[in-house]
Amino acid sequence: MQNKKIQHFLLFTMLLSLTAALFVPFSSAFAEEGTTTTVSEAVQQSQETEVPPVPEDIMTLTRNAGYPVDDYYRPAATIVIEANTGQVVWEDQADLSWYPASIAKMMTVYLLFDAIKEGKLALDTPVTATASDEAISQIYELSNTPIVAGVAYPVSDLLYMTTLASSNAATVMLANLVSNNDAAAFIAMMNEKAMQLGMTNTTFYNPSGAAASAFNGYYAPEGIDPEADNVSTARDLALMFYHLLKEHSEVLEYTNKFQVTVMENTDYAEVLENSNKSIPGGLYGYEGEDGLKTGASPEGAYNYAATAQRGDLRLIEVVLGVGTWDDAEGENQRHAFGNALFDYGFTNFEYKKLLEAGTQVINDKEIILEQELYGLLRNGTQPEYILSDNQQLILSNQLTEVSSSVPAPSVKYQVKEEEKEEENNASKAATSLVGTVKHSWREYAAAGVALFLSLLLFLFSRTTGSKSRQTRKQSTAHRQGAFFASIILLLAAVLIGGATFILGPWLPF
């Protein structure tokens, strides 16, 4: 009796083991799919992490910063981005089409620095003023500096006149220098550059922010609508400054001065004062502010673009459409809004080193970073990371880039060799196993059916028959027959499974 119990226990254990063995390939396939789903869900959950609430509107923010602004001066559009990553820390109507006015002069400056970098000219290249240049400088309606025909002005001095004093005459002289006096070609260069940078909602019709008709015939690009005004957005202008500072950071030397004297030691010397009142020393002087450009026009009202740095954090901001052209107080109010936005950025965000180069454990994976990772974080938050398939470690900080053309902060990584080898082996094994299941499903299905019938017969052999319907002898014979049939089916399942494992698919149908 004891021996029979042991036999039954061993047989039952064998049946369970065989069942598990036959279903291993299928469970492996399911596990493979489950892993993929889990990773996808993890990334999705990271992206769906609750985003910090949007701060109060620009009016409340500015008043809380200590500036008593009136709703009449509410900006039409604003944006603040971080200069290293191009990530947005504040935006309001950033894609609203607007007239940038003299901020457009900075695209002319951009193309000038491109030409200098290419070796086509230099900062000390002399530009001899023409009679047209002198005539433009005397147009009362345009912001200007005195220009005298026949006098040679260094490029560097014309730069100061363009950026600090917003001189239309100096801007045209620089544009003509870069384009070899082909005004229409220069406008084309401006638009090509805008397209290259990803400024998808920007069109230029002139180099300085004043329509061609305002130059009284002294500047008339062929084929360009003389009444057309430049059109852009706060986002596009911020993107332009992002690239300008990346490629030509020396431009700040021509925007960060409160006062500068041009044409020194000549009869044409002149002291220029920066129209940017947030430069330290100005009426709204802001610590760390070092340019870039103001602008104003009847259509665009008062505009302002600036950059400031404190510690490792540099911000770029654009404020468009403050007040109206006929109310000069808008010139001051734009700086109040700009300073308040800087306060918001510097108070709530930090740019810092997040990871050292070398070995790091990220998302439970040991990797090697090729270089340090710096990034922008909102105060009080922790960085999250995504390991992309192309071996880029990407910072996920719930902040968007100013443009889809600007990549998210990331560094290249490599998986440690031993881990990479284990992953490759596991991947090959899983792939091979899943492939075997897919190609041999008929054979494994037959083995499964045989095993299932074997289990049913085995269970039937252990039941007690009804004495009212058959004799004990007949019942015993039936149970024995079911038992031996279950053994045969079990052996068949083992043979089918084993043959399939060794030979692969072999059934003829």
Automatic annotation (TrEMBL):
Occurrences of domain Peptidase S11 D-alanyl-D-alanine carboxypeptidase A N-terminal (ranges): 77-322
Transmembrane segments: 444-461, 482-507
Its biological purpose: Removes C-terminal D-alanyl residues from sugar-peptide cell wall precursors.
Domain called Penicillin-binding protein 4 C-terminal: residue spans: 351-414
Extent of the signal sequence: 1-31
Record-linked PANTHER family: D-ALANYL-D-ALANINE CARBOXYPEPTIDASE (PTHR21581), TRAFFICKING PROTEIN PARTICLE COMPLEX SUBUNIT 12 (PTHR21581:SF6)
InterPro entries recorded: Beta-lactam/transpept-like, Pen-bd_prot4_C_dom, Pen-bd_prot4_C_dom_sf, Peniciliin-bd_prot_C_sf, Peptidase_S11, Peptidase_S11_N
Family label: Belongs to the peptidase S11 family.
Domain of life: Bacteria
Protein name: DUF1958 domain-containing protein
Species per Swiss-Prot/TrEMBL record: Enterococcus larvae
Keywords from the UniProt entry: Cell shape, Cell wall biogenesis/degradation, Hydrolase, Membrane, Peptidoglycan synthesis, Signal, Transmembrane, Transmembrane helix
